[in-house]
Q: What sequence folds into this?
């Protein structure tokens, strides 16, 4: 089993068995603790930042929400007129997303449980992956981009945890403990390191750093990859 497959399966186990209720509450309007409130606020800011990279009017566009979770990004895309394929490795989160989708955009969102890199999903104008690639190393990041970007005519906007002092310390500490009974550990990245991994994988496009969102315990960097257009 590849490193990507092993991590993907661990993520599915975490969200389907350990964290479903936590994420259902975090991504709702229900009251949460102070720490989780900062995470919720950070995720809201990041979602807005990522959406700002795409046209305000997405009528007729086909967009992939890669790692859609409970569906907030997919709904926002559909409200702009996009036809959205929203996929997540966790069937439990997909069920929550289907239950929450507003009736006025439900026909424009195809919620699926599965692997976001599946080529059978087809081609898209753009893809967004918010916090769904944060558990993978640089080679796996390059593999995910290699699987998705060539099937896009536009942008692939995704997030990764940055290599800050705090996140690197947490990552090193997490590696000291077994992973079988705990949540997956985020892997911090630098934009330069990701760009090097993409070049090593033979990807010809351009990676750019958009901005970083810091809100309490939520720290994430938005990046954009675009294939070179002939």
A:
């Amino acid at each position: 089993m590849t490193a990507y497959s092993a991590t993907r399966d661990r993520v599915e186990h975490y969200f389907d068995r350990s964290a479903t209720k936590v994420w259902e509450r975090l991504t709702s309007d229900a009251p949460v603790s102070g720490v989780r409130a900062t995470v919720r606020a950070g995720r809201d800011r990041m979602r807005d930042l990522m959406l700002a990279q795409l046209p305000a009017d997405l009528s007729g566009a086909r967009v992939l929400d890669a790692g859609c979770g409970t569906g907030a990004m997919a709904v926002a895309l559909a409200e702009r007129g996009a036809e959205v394929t929203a996929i997540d490795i966790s069937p439990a989160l997909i069920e929550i997303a289907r239950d929450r989708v507003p009736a006025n955009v439900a026909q424009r969102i195809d919620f699926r449980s599965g692997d976001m890199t599946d080529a059978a999903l087809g081609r898209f104008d753009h893809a967004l992956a918010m916090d769904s690639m944060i558990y993978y190393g640089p080679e796996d990041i390059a593999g995910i981009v290699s699987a998705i970007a060539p099937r896009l005519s536009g942008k692939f906007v995704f997030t990764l945890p940055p290599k800050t002092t705090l996140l690197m310390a947490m990552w090193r500490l997490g590696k000291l403990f077994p992973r079988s009974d705990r949540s997956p550990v985020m892997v911090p990245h630098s934009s330069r390191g990701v760009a090097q991994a993409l070049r090593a994988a033979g990807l010809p496009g351009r990676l750019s750093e958009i901005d970083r969102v810091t809100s309490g315990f939520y720290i994430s960097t938005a990046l954009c990859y675009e294939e070179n257009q002939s």
Notes: Residues 155 and 226 are 5 Å apart (CA to CA). Confidence is low (pLDDT under 50) at residues 176-181.
